[in-house]
C-alpha cells in the first residue's frame, strides 16, 4: 500500500456490507490495498445483518472511497449491499437531544410542572433572581457560542456549517462533566452586535463558552462580554489551549531537568488567538522569556506591520532580550518551541539549533509543524495535537472540568488563578513514576481528569474572589 493516512477523524472511513465474501475477504482486502485504501477491520458473517460481511476501510477523500467501493463491486462473486461514511453516520440527526427530569404521566403531573404550578417558581425567581440557580436548569447550563468564522482546520465556513463542532463540544461537556451545554451558532460578524446578542440570550446560562471566532474579533467579543456579564466567559480556542499547553510543559520541564521560570527560553510560533493566550498564561506562570514569531519573524512592537493594538501589546510584553530578525534568531538556544501555526514550518535544522534537551510542541492540525519522529532527532520531548502520536495536547482535558468547577461554585469569571489551577491539576494527573518523554499529559479519555480539575478550579475561583464564599 502506498497511501499514508491522517487519523480516522480526518480521513474518510467507510463500512461496506458485502455478500459472497465469506471465503474471499482476503481478496477484498487485497483490492482495497491495491487501490491505496487502508483496511481497518473485516468481519465475516456480520451479526447485525444476516449473510453479509462487513469491511471497514479508510480512504483519502470522498472520491477515493467511492472508487474503492466500485472496485470491490467488480470483484467476481462479490456484491456490495450497502456502504456508509462512518463519520457522517455518527452525526445523522445531530449528536444531542433534550431529556426531561420530571415525568408527565397524568393531570397532576401536568399541573405541577406546568400551569398552574409553574407560577410559584416563576414568582420566587421574580422576587429573588438568584433562585433561578435553584429552580431552573440555569445552574448547570453553558452556551457554546460561535459565528463559524474560524473553525479549526476549516476556516470561515459560517454558523450553520459550524453546528456539528458546537454539538461535539456540547456532548463532551455532558458526557465528561455532566454539564448541560447548548450549541448556539449566530449569524453575525459585527463584534458589538454579536456581544449584544450573546448578552441578550445569556439569562438562562451560568457560563458562556466562545468557540471558533476569528481573531482579532474574538479578543474584543470576549473582553466586552466579561465587562457586561456576571457569569464566566471562556474562549476555549485561546484559554483552553493555553491551559493544556501549560499542563504539558509543567511535566515536560520536569522530564528534562529544567525549571518553569525566568531562565526558561520559550518560542511561540503563530501569534493568533491561541498563541497570544499561551504566551500570556506562561508569563502568568513565571516564564518571562517568551518570544513570539510569525511568518515575518520575531514579533516586536516596533515592527512596521504592528498596527493592531493587540499585536503591539504582545510585542511589548514579550521578547525581554529584544531579539530582532527571523525565526532562526529566536530558536537559537531556545529550550521550548510551541507551534500554533501551520504544518511543516519547522525544520530539523531549526530544532538542532535549540538548547540541549529541547522541548517541541508541534500542535498544528492535521499536519504538525514538524514530523514528531524527525523532531526527536534533536528534541528530548515532543508533543502534538494529534491522537496518533504520544503526548496529545487536547483541549478536552480542560474545558469540561473547568466548567464543572465554575458551575459548582457559581463563579462569575475565569481568572488567571483559575487557569493556572486547572493546568497544575491536569499536570498532576500524571504519576511521577510514569512521567517520561512519551508521558507528559493524561489521555483525553482519562476519566480522572474532570473531577480533579473541577475541584482545583472551584477552590481557585473561590480563593480569587470569582465565586461567593459560603457562610460557615
Automatic annotation (TrEMBL):
Gene3D superfamilies: Malic enzyme, N-terminal domain, NAD(P)-binding Rossmann-like Domain
GO molecular function per UniProt: malic enzyme activity; metal ion binding; NAD binding; oxidoreductase activity, acting on the CH-OH group of donors, NAD or NADP as acceptor
Occurrences of domain Malic enzyme N-terminal (ranges): 93-226
Keyword Metal-binding carried by entry: yes
Keyword Translocase attached: no
Record-linked SMART domains: malic (SM01274), Malic_M (SM00919)
Family matches, as SUPFAM superfamilies: Aminoacid dehydrogenase-like, N-terminal domain (SSF53223), NAD(P)-binding Rossmann-fold domains (SSF51735)
Entry cofactors: Mn(2+); Mg(2+)
UniProtKB keywords: Metal-binding, Oxidoreductase
Malic enzyme NAD-binding domain ranges (all copies): 238-462
InterPro entries linked: Aminoacid_DH-like_N_sf, Malate_Decarboxylase, Malic_enzyme_CS, Malic_N_dom, Malic_N_dom_sf, Malic_NAD-bd, Malic_NAD-bd_bact_type, NAD(P)-bd_dom_sf
Entries under Pfam families matching the protein: malic, Malic_M
Identification of the protein by name: NADP-dependent malic enzyme
Amino acid at each position: 500500500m502506498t497511501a499514508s493516512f491522517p487519523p480516522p477523524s480526518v480521513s474518510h472511513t467507510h463500512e461496506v456490507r458485502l455478500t459472497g465474501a465469506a471465503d474471499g475477504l482476503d481478496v477484498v482486502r487485497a483490492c482495497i490495498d491495491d487501490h491505496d485504501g487502508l483496511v481497518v477491520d473485516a468481519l465475516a458473517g456480520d451479526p447485525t445483518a444476516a449473510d453479509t460481511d462487513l469491511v471497514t476501510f479508510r480512504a483519502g477523500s470522498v472520491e477515493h472511497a467511492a472508487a474503492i467501493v466500485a472496485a470491490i463491486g467488480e470483484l467476481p462473486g462479490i456484491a456490495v449491499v450497502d456502504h456508509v461514511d462512518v463519520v457522517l453516520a455518527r452525526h445523522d440527526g445531530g449528536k444531542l437531544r433534550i431529556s426531561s427530569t420530571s415525568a408527565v404521566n397524568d393531570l397532576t403531573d401536568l399541573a405541577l410542572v406546568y400551569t398552574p404550578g409553574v407560577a410559584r417558581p416563576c414568582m420566587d425567581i421574580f422576587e429573588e433572581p438568584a433562585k433561578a440557580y435553584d429552580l431552573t436548569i440555569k445552574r448547570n447550563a453553558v452556551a457554546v457560542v460561535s459565528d463559524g468564522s474560524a473553525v479549526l482546520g476549516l476556516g470561515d465556513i459560517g454558523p450553520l456549517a459550524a453546528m456539528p463542532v458546537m454539538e461535539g463540544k456540547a456532548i463532551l461537556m455532558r458526557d465528561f462533566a455532566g454539564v448541560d451545554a447548548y450549541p448556539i451558532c449566530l449569524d453575525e460578524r459585527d463584534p458589538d452586535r454579536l456581544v449584544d446578542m450573546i448578552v441578550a440570550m445569556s439569562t438562562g446560562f451560568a457560563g458562556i463558552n466562545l468557540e471558533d471566532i476569528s481573531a482579532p474579533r474574538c479578543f474584543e467579543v470576549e473582553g466586552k462580554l466579561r465587562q457586561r456579564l456576571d457569569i464566566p466567559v471562556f474562549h476555549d480556542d485561546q484559554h483552553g489551549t493555553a491551559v493544556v499547553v501549560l499542563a504539558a510543559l509543567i511535566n515536560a520541564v520536569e522530564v528534562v531537568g529544567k525549571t518553569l521560570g525566568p531562565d526558561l527560553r520559550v518560542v511561540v510560533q503563530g501569534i493568533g488567538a491561541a498563541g497570544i493566550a499561551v504566551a500570556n498564561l506562561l508569563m502568568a506562570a513565571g516564564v518571562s522569556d517568551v518570544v513570539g514569531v510569525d511568518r515575518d519573524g520575531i514579533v516586536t512592537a516596533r515592527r512596521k506591520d504592528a498596527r493592531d493594538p493587540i499585536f503591539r501589546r504582545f510585542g511589548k510584553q514579550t521578547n525581554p532580550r529584544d531579539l530582532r530578525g527571523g525565526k532562526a534568531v529566536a530558536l537559537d538556544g531556545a529550550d521550548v518551541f510551541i507551534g500554533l501555526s501551520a504544518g511543516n514550518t519547522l525544520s530539523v535544522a531549526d530544532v538542532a539549533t535549540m538548547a540541549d534537551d529541547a522541548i517541541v510542541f508541534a500542535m498544528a492540525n492535521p499536519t504538525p509543524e514538524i514530523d514528531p519522529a524527525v523532531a526527536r532527532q534533536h528534541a528530548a520531548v515532543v508533543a502534538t495535537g494529534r491522537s496518533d502520536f504520544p503526548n496529545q495536547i487536547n483541549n478536552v482535558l480542560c474545558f469540561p472540568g473547568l466548567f464543572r468547577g465554575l458551575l459548582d461554585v457559581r463563579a462569575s469569571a475565569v481568572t488567571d488563578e483559575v487557569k493556572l489551577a486547572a493546568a497544575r491539576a491536569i499536570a498532576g494527573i500524571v504519576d511521577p513514576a510514569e512521567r517520561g518523554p512519551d508521558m507528559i499529559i493524561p489521555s483525553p479519555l482519562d476519566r480522572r481528569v474532570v473531577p480533579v480539575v473541577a475541584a482545583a478550579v472551584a477552590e481557585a475561583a473561590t480563593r480569587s474572589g470569582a465565586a461567593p464564599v459560603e457562610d460557615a
